[in-house]
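CDP-alcohol phosphatidyltransferase family protein
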Amino acid sequence: MALNNTYDARLLQQETAVGAGVQLLLLTVLGTALGMGPAGWLTGLAFALATWAVLSRALHRTRPRSFGPANRVTLGRATLVGGVTALVADSFQSPPPVTVLVALTAVALILDAVDGKVARRTGSSSALGARFDMEVDAFLILVLSVYVSTTVGAWALLIGGMRYAFVAAARFLPWLNNALPPSTGRKTVAALQGVLLLLAGSGILPYAPTFGVVALALGLLTWSFGRDIAWLWRTRGSAEREVERVEVERLHRETAGVGAP
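Structure:
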């Protein structure tokens, strides 16, 4: 068994190493073809290093038997997000290659609809995969909101920062960590964020429609978060009682086992 575990661990390490290598290759291609400056290079390298470190740690902690085809798709999407991140960082020093940025973002958004289907069809769905997918989505939205904020104003950063503000608030308000019921509306709003921000950042619309598209994205996201927070607030008492009930049952089982033959 030890040999199998070691072998699996090595395979997982190889998967993350390949992902980091592909990320470096993409940065090299972008840097060579587009003349990317120091800001883009450093930001892209930092993203690659952070992704490799966080993913490696998560795999070590959860110890899955294999990386899985769905996670490979998500890792590929993360690589594209790394390229978008580098281009956005570089755009503060020189005009961005909008066509390339839009193309990378569009493919990343398309693949977002692929990894979930792959996970379901191959029976490889996992908590790690779902979290990996969500974090890649959230970071792409953050990067896109930074990009469009240079056109419409700093208020656009609220779109990318809202999810991280929610996570930070949950550290102090535990009821925000309670499970939410499935919601088609929540999924639709989340999917629209990338599409609307991509449209706004493409430069094909005049300023007023671009402003309106970003405002629509922020309005939808505010509605979605507001609805979820309101639901969590209303049900916080019942959730806490359920946690207490489970804990009491666990203590009763442990107590009943004491002294048993």
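Residues 2-34 form the longest helix (33 residues).
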